[in-house]
Amino acid sequence: MALSKVLFIFLINIYLFLTFSYAADPFVSYDFEVSYITASPLGIPQQVIAINGKFPGPIINVTTNNNVAVNVRNKLDESLLIHWSGIQQRRGSWQDGVLGTNCPIPSKWNWTYNFQVKDQIGSFFYFPSLHLQRAAGGFGGFIINNRAIIPIPFDTPYGDIVIFIGDWYTRNHTDLRKDLDDGKDLGMPDGVLINGKGPYRYNDTLVPDGIDFEKIEVHPGKTYRIRVHNVGVSTSLNFRIQSHNLLLAETEGSYTVQQNYTSLDIHVGQSYSFLLTTDQNASTDYYIVASARFVNESRWQRVTGVGILHYTNSKGNAHGSLPPAPDDQYDKTYSMNQARSIRWNVSASGARPNPQGSFRYGSINVTEIYVLKNKPSEKIGGKRRATLSGISFVNPSTPIRLADQFKVKGVYKLDFPTKPLTGPPRAETSVINGTYRGFMEIILQNNDTKMHTYHLSGYAFFVVGMDYGDWSDNSRGTYNKWDGIARSTTQVYPGAWTAILVSLDNVGIWNIRTENLDSWYLGQETYIRVVNPEATNKTELPMPDNALFCGALDKMQKPQHITSSAQSVKGKKFTWLMFVCALILIFH
């Protein structure tokens, strides 16, 4: 009997240890079935990419430091990767979901992403990163909430609303891809969607009858957090809600100095969250508008997304003209000055208790400088290509991170130039050699005639300056070295530059690219390789057990390797608990 009591106490301790071990870093799992559906967001039936039958896909809602598993079943007729835009994948570029780090998930296969949202908060989104698939959908929101012990720098909102805006084509993504392969431009989009739906019929001439539109219901006298993501192909959009101020609170994981805007330009790939107070008269509904920027507005009138903000006590439909976009056709600095006004809230706590501004980026010495210049697409070897600094990136058949792991030679070159090439452009797999724990200055010079946004995986960088003209060493005198916003996607205006600073403290292979899908597809990207010479699991996680193999390593891939890690982890925990419970019953 004494032995059974000892065993009972011992087994109870094991049970409690297992329970609290998982409670310390909660495990959150999702199942994604990615498939085609037929939808008519602009009134024309077309093929759309849905997740679990929904377009847009489900919202992932987690808390700082949660462990996240997403089991993705690919029911498309082509390969697939899901990229978690803005999720830093600390120590784990294996999970980033781009071709430099992952082999694609083949059609009819499934694969499980496993990662921790370490030391992050904020508003992000995910999307399919291959084959121009984002132009067909497949995107959804990713919210990381603060831990309960970390205060947010505003009163808890009454509700949380996610809004996806983006330009949209009625041609399938496969047709858009063929146009690019044939050297053609994509042309003007057919419209702008809000949460996967077409415009409210505010104008009988511009908007046909029968289109489903987005309607967001709110209660009067409340404050809501609205998270807005531009998930489109290439069009910058001005976002506004009729008669309401938008109090900017956060962007891509950083709390901002809180400022009111009547409208804000949101560029492709960018995310913002606003506080919206429903303090207006409820005599009618109000327009929600996302309209194209930096275009001929008379030609692009129909490329406007319109939804409805509906108070629960509203007395009528919205009517009349849309609230106007900024009148800055002849003032090219208006939008840039607006962008410069977005500042880091240095006194607010982010994912950790210490204030965001305790990281004094402006006092850190720069160790390496790269000037990345783009320009209009050009032909290389008879094919239309897009370049960065004269190099059009060619994705290797063997991902860079996998090639490093197995010491496969000749997959890439670690020779990306610090300054743009002066000779003819080339198409190759050239990668930036980043120094672990270095502090890199990157100047993004846009010599194209259209707006670009650039994204860096693995990090939040500091946007310290932007201006028109060519960047020079003297431009550093204009840098904001105190409260420049930290984010993962920044705009670069045509004929202008943007400077960013990034601390290379995250080991891995990290994608830097234009978010404009057409230019990205045509090669305007590269990777930053950050390696710890001491090679330790403390700075990079080991290759996942379920890693896919392709290219030079394709013979290592076996079909039975494709299983759900999410299910296996939960299954192991469940098995352990069942085993312990059984022993408790036996010996008690």
Automatic annotation (TrEMBL):
Membrane topology category: Lipid-anchor; GPI-anchor
Cofactor(s) for this UniProt protein: Cu cation
Subcellular location: Cell membrane
Record-linked Pfam families: Cu-oxidase (PF00394), Cu-oxidase_2 (PF07731), Cu-oxidase_3 (PF07732)
Domain Plastocyanin-like: 34-147, 160-313, 398-534
Keyword set includes ATP-binding: no
GO annotation, cellular component aspect: plasma membrane; side of membrane
MF term (GO), any: oxidoreductase activity
Signal sequence extent: 1-23
Gene3D superfamilies found in the cross-reference section: Cupredoxins - blue copper proteins
Protein keywords: Cell membrane, Copper, Glycoprotein, GPI-anchor, Lipoprotein, Membrane, Metal-binding, Signal
Family of the protein in this entry: Belongs to the multicopper oxidase family.
Official protein name in the record: Monocopper oxidase-like protein SKU5
Organism whose genome encodes this protein: Lupinus angustifolius
